């Protein structure tokens, strides 16, 4: 079906196509509300200002915020902390980061860090209260009784380097991937996630981590 459009509409279409061609963005189409948010974030980053956004579900906030942030972080060689209140929110960040990599032909690592207890490979820790778990883990580490920790912290650790390199080669590195790769080599997944975070451009974690 054909539709006749005015010269000004045609100019707008051309402008949008051109902007999408040059713009660092995760999707092929950008909605007007996303474009506005994206520009706001871009300006805030440039001017070192804070931005507080209240926007409805489905607007595409993650893409509109992460796209300018990662473009800025790559240029300035800095790391983004993407803080969430729930682990389920990590998935959309990973997916958006992956789209950004593919569409813009750039490479960077995006890692999730979740609670130590949720990553621990020791048996029966799920039944412990968090405070008891931290004491338990601390004691094991102090006494060199956690083989996963000892294996991970070994000097010139070729096994840990290999696991890190395998994880780096995945497009999306979820906490499940970190646990399964660490389990294969009997490494502590939490320590591995911290090692991977050091190499990452985006670190997704709980709000509370920013105060640690
Ligand atoms: S060091 Fe890692 S594997 Fe060992 S008890 Fe602590 S969290 Fe668990």
Structure in words:
This protein has 212 residues and is mainly alpha-helical. It has one domain: Rossmann fold. The chain is 56% helix and 6% strand. The protein has ten helices and three strands. It has helices at 7-22, 32-47, 61-76, 90-104, 116-119, 130-142, 147-153, 158-168, 175-184, 189-198; strands spanning 80-84, 110-112, 202-206. It has a three-stranded parallel beta sheet with strand order 1-3-2, with helices on both faces. The longest helix has 16 residues, at 7-22. The mean pLDDT is 88.
Short descriptors:
212 residues; mainly alpha; Rossmann fold; 3-stranded parallel β-sheet; 10 helices; 56% helix; binds iron/sulfur cluster
Radius of gyration: 21 Å
The largest pleated sheet is described as: 3 strands, parallel
Termini separation (Å)?
Answer: 58 Å
Strands side by side in the biggest sheet: 1-3-2
In short:
By secondary structure, the protein is mainly alpha-helical. The protein has ten helices and three strands, in the order αααβαβααααααβ.
Write the layout of secondary structure elements.
Layout: H1 7-22, H2 32-47, H3 61-76, E1 80-84, H4 90-104, E2 110-112, H5 116-119, H6 130-142, H7 147-153, H8 158-168, H9 175-184, H10 189-198, E3 202-206
The structure holds iron/sulfur cluster (SF4).
